[in-house]
Specification:
Layout (H helix, E strand, L loop, with lengths): L4 E6 L5 H13 L3 E6 L14 H7 L4 H5 L4 H21 L5 E6 L1 H12 L7 E5 L16 E5 L9 H20 L9 E6 L7 H11 L3 E6 L3 H11 L5 E6 L1 H6 L14 H4 L4 E6 L3 E5 L13 E3 L4 E5 L2 H15 L6 E6 L16 H14 L4 E6 L6 H17 L8 H4 L1
Parallel strand pairs: 1-2, 1-3, 3-4, 4-5, 6-7, 6-8, 8-9, 9-13, 13-14
Antiparallel strand pairs: 10-12, 11-12
Helix pairs in contact: 1-6, 2-4, 4-5, 7-13, 11-12
Length: about 425
């Protein structure tokens, strides 16, 4: 790609200088900028390639309708809808290779919708005054979104924000040139796990699945990993899902910021993707290690994994509540679901002699799971630990049966994939 075409999105009525500076930097980096204006109140001092009327027309509305109520939030919500739809169309027609957006909270809100409208592998860059903030809920963040803090960007150009904007422009052009977009030569199986010290099944499952002709993609369930799994599942990006680490679900329902949003464990089922599920690591609640644990959890066993993340053990009552959540979410599935319940333990550190060993709480969870897993899900209780060979064998047994029955498409052997 000699000169990638980069869509530059922003409110040209208030940020014209910054947006034109980004466009200049894109040209100098070897790209071709295309301007999309999402102004509500005024007009930019330049002619954008896609003006606010074209953006709102993509949402089947107009600037007159959007501003009739005098509510900036509702107007920008309509503008975000139009920007997302128009950007998706431009990409589908091969007219853009990536996008960069600039904004404060309002512009970032719009940019997140645009990013979610594009598939994995299309460069998405947001320059924001709230980059990396907890104001951004996990379910709004696209799988491969890139962000940079718009430092010094409140009002006008200066040496600080020029340094930021020029880096962002160069990054999105470089990403558009360098990206290796996903190519589906084999059916893809999505799998969740929590590192390799806590959960180890993928070590044995990866070669076994590859031998069967599948590509395995493993997601690290520390918040954004589960979010990525959910986002790709929602776009029907998997032949099957092996969701074996559900700790993010437990985190969300216990108020932890280390979560993947409210729809964790829902999207594969709603998309009609077959799932094999296990409750790996739901006995731990993650939290930032740089904050003290919440008052109601301070009497629980605590472990600081590093300077960023720590965890406490969940008591029996909390685990039972999570079991009910798992059952309720899986009951919505539109494809087969098999739940493997390892009654001897669900993560490395809950075994005898380890710091999170709590057999009474584990038994309470297992009993609640037996009551909570209902159709269309089926329950498979094994007298083994999740990190055991028996767990791996049970997962492959279910998958092989589904392949034979045509529920999961057959894998492609190496020679076919080549």
């Amino acid at each position: 790609m000699s000169r990638p075409r980069i869509l530059v999105i922003g409110t040209g009525d208030t940020k014209a200088d910054e947006l034109r500076f980004i466009a200049d930097c894109i040209r100098e980096a070897g790209g071709e900028p295309l301007a999309m204006d999402v102004s509500i109140l005024g007009d930019p001092p330049y002619r954008p390639d896609f003006d606010k009327h074209a953006v709102l027309a993509a949402a089947d509305t107009s600037i007159a309708v959007a501003t009739a109520g005098g509510d900036e939030l509702s107007a920008m919500t309509l503008m975000a809808e139009g920007a997302a739809k128009l950007t998706r169309t431009l990409h589908a027609e091969g007219r853009i290779d990536g996008f960069i957006a600039l904004g404060g909270t309002m512009g970032t809100d719009l940019a997140l919708d645009v990013a979610l409208a594009l598939p994995l592998g299309v460069p998405k860059f947001v320059v924001s005054t709230i980059a990396y903030s907890h104001l951004l809920p996990p379910d709004r963040i696209a799988t491969d979104l890139m962000m940079i803090l718009w430092a010094g960007g409140l009002y006008g150009l200066n040496s600080v924000c020029k340094a930021v904007l020029s880096q962002a422009a160069g990054a999105v052009v470089g990403a558009a040139r360098a990206v290796v977009a996903p190519v589906r030569t084999r059916p893809v199986i999505g799998m969740s796990s929590l590192g390799k010290a806590c959960l180890t099944y993928m070590v044995d499952l990866k070669p076994a699945l590859e031998k069967r002709g599948y590509e395995l993609v493993v997601f690290h369930t520390t918040g954004m990993g589960g979010r990525a799994l959910e986002a790709i599942a929602a776009q029907n990006g998997f032949a099957a899902v092996m969701d074996f680490s559900l700790q993010e679900l437990a985190n969300f329902h216990n108020g932890s910021v280390v979560n993947s949003g409210p729809d964790r464990l829902e999207n594969a089922g709603l998309a009609g993707i077959p799932q094999i599920v296990a409750p790996g690591a739901i006995d731990m609640i993650d939290m930032p290690a740089w904050q003290p644990p919440p008052a109601h959890l301070r009497d629980r066993t605590y472990y600081a994994h590093n300077r960023l993340i720590g965890m406490v053990t969940a008591d029996a009552e909390v685990r039972q509540a999570v079991a009910r959540k798992i059952g309720a979410k899986l009951s919505m599935a539109k494809a087969p679901v098999a739940v493997i319940l390892p009654s001897a333990g669900i993560e490395q550190w809950d075994q005898e002699g380890e710091p999170f060993h709590d057999p009474q709480a584990l038994d309470a969870f297992v009993d609640e799971m037996k009551k909570s897993i209902i159709e269309p899900a089926t329950l498979h209780v094994i007298d083994a630990h999740i990190n055991s060979t028996l767990f791996v064998e049970k997962a492959l047994e279910i998958l092989d049966r589904w392949i034979a029955e045509g529920i999961v498409p057959a894998g492609q052997p190496d020679e076919a994939a080549a």
